[in-house]
Each structure stands twice: as structure tokens, then as C-alpha cells.
Here is the input.
Amino acid sequence: MNLEEILKIFKNNINWYKIRERGNNKILAINFKHETCLKEILKRISESFVKKSERIISRISCGEIIDLDIKSFEIIEGFFIEYYDYEKQETCFIRIYKIKDIKTNKIYTNLYIDLIKNSAWW
Here is the structure.
């Protein structure tokens, strides 16, 4: 999966993003400008999946984000996708969340992708 290409797909609706790389691992985090439809994000990301792969897609109906033992966000809804590219031997974990900041009550739509090249699964 090419994270730079994913970034280009959403370039007109990004509030902020970051890409980091360490060893065989690469991450992409996107915060969208507007409250974007989660199914539309999932559909657009799915277009980059190859046929020789495995995909496990789970829908999230609620949850919370706890950082350093402090609850900071409520997950309103989301998707969690495990993606295994057989040809590239890559593993990818994708999270699409609509979250609410419990301090400000602001709602955000975020996308997080963890890409692991040469994963131990292979």
C-alpha cells in the first residue's frame, strides 16, 4: 500500500496529516477538515487494495481512547481493517474513526494507517 497515494486521494479535505517511517514500519495519520462519511473513506481506501490479499473489515459502534490512563476521546463510530498483501508481503492496519473530544465536545474524523513491510506473518 502506498501511503503517499492514499494522502493524494484525500488532499482536498485534509486539516492536518503526518507520515513517519522507522525501519520496515510506516504510518499515516489524517485529520479531515470536515465531518467526512466513514463509508466513503473506506470505499476510497478499498480501491487501493489488490486482489491477491486478505481483508478483514470490522465495524465499530462505540469505544474510547485512553491515553496515559486518561480518557480523552469517545469513539462514535468507525472501522478497523486488517489488510494482508500477499505479493508485497505487507501487513496493514487501518482505523477510520469519528471521535468526540470529551473536553471540547468537538467531533473529528480521523484515518490512521500502520504499514508493516516484510511482516513476520510471511
User: Anything to note?
Assistant: Strands lie at 14-22, 25-32, 53-60, 63-67, 70-85, 90-101, 107-117. The longest helix spans residues 38-46. The helical segments are 3-9, 38-46.
